[in-house]
Amino acid sequence: MFATWVGANANNGTWYIGGVLAACGFIAAMNVLVFSSALSYIFLSLIGFIGYKTGVSTMGISRASFGIRGSFLPSLINFTQFIGWTAVNTFIAATSVSYLLHDLVGLPLFGHAGGNTGMFLGIAVMSILHIISIVSGSRSVQLIERIGIILVFIFVVWESIVVFKTVSFSQISSWSVPTKLRMDIGTAIDTVAAFNLAWVTAGADFTRFTKKRSSSTVMPFIGALVGVLWFAFIGLVATISIAVASGAYDPNNSDPSSIASKLGLGIIALLVIVLTSMTANAVNLMAAGSALSNVFPRLSLKVSLWIVALLATLVTFIPMILGSFLDAFTVFLDYIGMVLGPIISIIIVDFYILKKKEYKVAELTKTNGIYWYRGGINWIAVITWVLGAILFFILQKLNFLNLTVGATFIDMLLSALIYLFLMKVTTKGND
């Protein structure tokens, strides 16, 4: 479990998050990273324990709180977020391909005149590689993952050495962000929370196979925290080092490909980024395909995977339409915070408070059983989720929260209280 969750954060997206946080300055970014990640992964441990206790996946667990049919809601949301993460990793890797094409044949880089050609080719190449990895089967995916993680570890060590040869740690820690580009602390907390909460809804998928309580709670927490702190730190210091060395800071150049190019790491580094995107996306595509098959049982997993791969390819073009990957990524993270936070709160309150840490596993698939509610849907959970999503949107507009603690965790607390109150009231009414 420790290795699984370190590996979960050993990817391009984690580097990019670190680069984005550079807009807070080094000290503030590290404080945000530790606080928001640790709090997020407490929820990972809580979900992990439910998986250990029941032996059921996270979306299977959601049947107890949302209802057997109502669980299609979190399943569809999981489907969309994994599509989104596939697109994020694909875009980052496509950027690497465009840099390779620039170095090898002189094609313009994305953001410059004629730069879209390299990105189109990069997205096409990555989409083909993703399809090949899926069609090749699970053993090929496992092999790619093992090779990819080893290369990632080598790459981050290499990048760290190059960074600290370029600038000193004191220069990085004392660097000041240009005022007009500075990110508010609350916004940074929300950004990191959204990134980390995306893993929480997959927690029980892994811990349901554990045989010890500590393996389902302590190890995921430590592993995920170590992984995100380590890799985001690399992205953070690399981005700041480039700003210090060049005298100019552009938050749009926080992606690993731009960083690797500016640090002079060469073609090998760009190829590593491409490979690691394949390792991350093999899991994302499989998870999205499984979620789609769960909602539409008549679809075979193979057909679902082809649908997912096609949709992910189309979504990858969104940053090119918007003209900024950072803007598209920020919108995506806002979506995750808005829709995932309330779902996690509902599941946790339902299991730990309302059901006293006991689910009747056999009832999770039983029509007209105790988790059938009304027509297979617990409308209280659905209503709470809708209210939670609306509240997140409202809270994000409050300047006080943007400057301090952000909207995500406040929204999760309010969603938990709403669900608890409504369930208590309806239970008493039925009694």
UniProtKB/TrEMBL annotation:
InterPro entries: CodB, Pur-cyt_permease
Transmembrane annotation, as ranges: 15-35, 41-61, 82-101, 113-135, 147-167, 187-206, 218-243, 263-283, 303-326, 332-354, 375-394, 400-422
Alphabetized GO MF terms: cytosine transmembrane transporter activity
Keyword Transmembrane part of the UniProt annotation: yes
Membrane topology qualifier: Multi-pass membrane protein
Short name of any one Pfam family annotated for the protein: Transp_cyt_pur
Cell compartments where the protein resides: Membrane
Alphabetical UniProt keywords: Membrane, Transmembrane, Transmembrane helix
A Gene Ontology cellular-component term: plasma membrane
Family listed: Belongs to the purine-cytosine permease (2.A.39) family.
Protein name: Purine-cytosine permease
